[in-house]
Known about the structure:
alpha+beta, five-stranded mixed beta sheet
Amino acid sequence: xxxxxxxxxxxxxxxxxxxxxxxxxxxxxxxxxxxxxxxxxxxxxxxxxxxxxxxxxxxxxxxxxxxxxxxxxxxxxxxxxxxxxxxxxxxxxxxxxxxxxxxxxxxxxxxxxxxxxxxxxxxxxxxxxxxxxxxxxxxxxxxxxxxxxxxxxxxxxxxxxxxxxxxxxxxxxxxxxxxxxxxxxxxxxxxxxxxxxxxxxxxxxxxxxxxxxxxxxxxxxxxxxxxxxxxxxxxxxxxxxxxxxxxxxxxxxxxxxxxxxxxxxxxxxxxxxxxxxxxxxxxxxxxxxxxxxxxxxxxxxxxxxxxxxxxxxxxxxxxxxxxxxxxxxxxxxxxxxxxxxxxxxxxxxxxxxxxxxxxxxxxxxxxxxxxxxxxxxxxxxxxxxxxxxxxxxxxxxxxxxxxxxxxxxxxxxxxxxxxxxxxxxxxxxxxxxxxxxxxxxxxxxxxxxxxxxxxxxxxxxxxxxxxxxxxxxxxxxxxxxxxxxxxxx
Length: 489
């Protein structure tokens, strides 16, 4: 039971009690590409280039250039591990997240003297301050634009309404006190906060908390319409743990940070300032993104001017490989929760479960388990798919299956597609709609009729049995037994 998990260190202590879920090493490792190179083989999974596999999380205790720090990677790169850390059946995580949004628990602020994240303080005014020496942010590959913070919980407040939000963004360390940050247009609330601040000619105070409770990391990936503008996802994290997330006032900016984080970066997103993402590498590439390809370096990104870095003693840096199973967990599970909630409002009891599959990176593909109970349910499964598409532009494919198919077993899903699907009857295409710009097949370079980057064709694969033919498609039934009787030593 993960009842005592509330920060990164309690997570690692808990995993040490679970056989095969945590690997630790004292062998020196270079954060520049080597950490990811190692973990690719140990447990990355997801859309990482093969050979890879799902495996344990890994802690590197001897990080080159950072004698007082460790690096943990792959913490959430297993749905089973996420389930254990959130004390939930892995197949029911979408339901847990759905309920968390509906029963929010607001964060609370604690005194600075109680905040573990401020045990050690480094101010940017110090002559030897250099964030690249303080934060062991890795590169995923030798071609990356630079060291990236991939698991930073960005926290900021709207300059108009005073509402706050937590999100994860791609952030590259560019100089001793500058970090570029990528705001995907329309996808994150903090990007909107920055637009408002920039229109006023003001900087946006922002804190970046690294190494926190996984409940916060998962909840921070909710998107509209499930969590509309003004909804602080820390409330959902509090609901998961049934206790509020603790925040603390920052030292150098008017913002708060997660009080038990391993690292906190305090800074301001500067108005009117932009920086080329690969200014140091000139490779034209940013880092590997969730579809499994290197994302292009952005020619103009907003810049965080760093004011301070605070840490716990002997801090633990948390990172992930961009295309790994970790992204599937963080992006996919909140989307599953959102689809479950949306479809249940429109047609209660019909959508039994949802899985945003690994091969879609958690964003591109949704498998929906739909139950047809009466003749009039025929066709409603396709309406459910349209609901998912209407809310989540990034979705490319929806695969519909019946209640007798295990959506978490891709072989079972492909069996349904093989025996319950005819492409000329059951493939529904929706051309000319917005999908995701990181899919290299979505754009005019791939086909002339795709007008802009991210413009593509969505598809529904209806692998459900027609209601009036259910008897013809009944699976062979076997005797129910307890096999352990025959497998005892």
